[in-house]
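Limitations
The structure tokens in this dataset are predictions for the assembled complex, not deposited experimental models. Users should treat interface geometry with appropriate caution, especially where small molecules or nucleic acid strands are included. An illustrative entry is reproduced here so readers can see what is and is not provided.
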Amino acid sequence: MNELLEIDDLVVRFRVVGMTKALLKGIRDPFIDAVLNVSFDVKEGETFGLVGESGSGKTTLGRAIIGLAPTKSGSIKFKGVELTTLGDGAFKQYRRNIAMMFQDPVASLSPRLTVRSLLAEPFKIHNMRDRDLDAEARRLLEMVGLNDSFFGRYPHELSGGQARRVGVARALSLEPKLIIADEPTAGLDVSVQGEVLNLLARLQSKLGLSYLIITHNLPVIRHVSDRIAIMYLGRFVEYGRTEEIFRHAAHPYTRALISAVPQPDPDLRREIVKLVGEIPSLANRPSGCEFHTRCPFARTECRESIPAQREIAPGHGHRCHFPLPEPEADAA
Amino acid sequence: MPAQLSEAIAAPTGMTGAQRERAAKLRRFLGDPLGVFGFVLVLLIVLSAIFAHVLTPYEPAAIDVKVRLAEPSFEHWVGTDQLGRDVLTRVLYGGRIALEVAAICISVSLAGGLVLGMLAGYGPRWLDSTLILIFDAVRSFPTIMFALAVVTLVGPSLETIELVIIVTSIPGYARIVRTQTLSLKTNEFILAERALGANMARVLGVHVMPNIIGPLMILASMDVPVVVTIEAGLSFLGLGVRPPTPSWGSILNDGYAFIRNTPWLVIAGGVPLIITTLGFTFLGEALRDIFDPKLRRAT
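Predicted assembly:
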């Protein structure tokens, strides 16, 4: 498979204190790095999952790829073309190849536009007015399992599932190669979540799409992703093939996330890794391994030195001084 | 509100959601007696100004020295002034001036405030700071003092008043638009449009403006009496429209000299100001109650 999207050593930095204020108060570091030294790639036709708590930088990473967050350094390549140094005009053409779906299905639709206008927007933005916009809108709605009886509806007149389908239709409108889906199942009933995921899977096999799915929902990501990466404070702490990660999570954080997923079988014997406290502030990164403040296995070394990225199997890497051993076979 | 009227409006069959919502808003408006009263007053003022030439046989500037300061009678319903001009005629034509000034000033400052406010809210930080500084500088002058200074410099005329009112009201609108734009610009639907590649003009014109124009129109309707009062006030001081053009302010000024013997002059100049203020304020408040969901009463 060919790499569609390649990200190398990406840093997204935000200024949190104004320039004058920083000078006056002598604040030496007025920045936070929401994404820090992240490298990965998404192959054609693949689904890549980004997992992490709120504030781990996964949404920011997604936004940086589509140009909505400022990249400080590093590279984002789409089909071998560097995006971070492109001018606005050239970047606009690449936007057609990458679509983004936002978290809230209803709030990500412009509230004063009807469904028809919402679906015509992408064509108008890209000066494709010569197309039959009604026909395009109808075609897009049919692709997501709706029909033109929705043309006159406003976003607040749609259910969450319907609004999500309209969002998918909008994302598909410019025939992108990659769709970045930020929490595609958030705020939906479980049955509707299933419908949306099946729709995404069907569209993927039909159109050969790649997905970058951003979520904190592990069961969902396990179901849909080929590979996943776990983010903590803007860094990848572990990445690898989905089944490999769920079989043998080497990083204690990954282990904790997986053990926190409720299991339907109450008798199932399983190892529990408990985390204490909240995710630390990005403005105040802990020393050494940034996870040591919450890690149940932390030792002195963790407080002092930053763990390097190591691969324990081809394509399966982690950042931990003391990776956990493979669990016994029956503990899955 | 009569029951059959509410049923007629409520007719639920064959309406889309948007129509139903519009019908519900109309029903709520008709259920607010003060709002309806305000609407009737506004209608009265507007129609009497538009049809001034039909409603009265006299010319507003026609002098008739034989009937100077005449008392109200069948020929002159509100009497005549010191030059024998029919006061009712002057009040009706004065309404034209007042509403013309209000319409011009409010539409221009609304448009200006909308553009500047959206630019300040959506544009870069330095532009925002610069515009805010200018708005605050302009707003720090009391309107009347600012008007006095400008009139002294360029001479009194209707255009001068309009210019002063426009310049001093733009910051008010712009500040509200800026705040609304700031709170909208981080919304997901704006990010979604930007992710599709929409430029600033498209984001502001198609996605921001429709969401802030409603409350702004209500503000504008409540601003009408303010503008009318400023025009009347400046004309009263002799800084506004030039005689013999009738204005409610100049009618008040004419009547002021004869207040002991002929009080109807002052009353005639004052009553339309009161009606305009009440009408637009009641109407604006009723509209705000309907369109601002946070202030909406539970039904």
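Some entries come with short summary sentences. For this one: The first strand of chain A starts at residue 3 and ends at 15.
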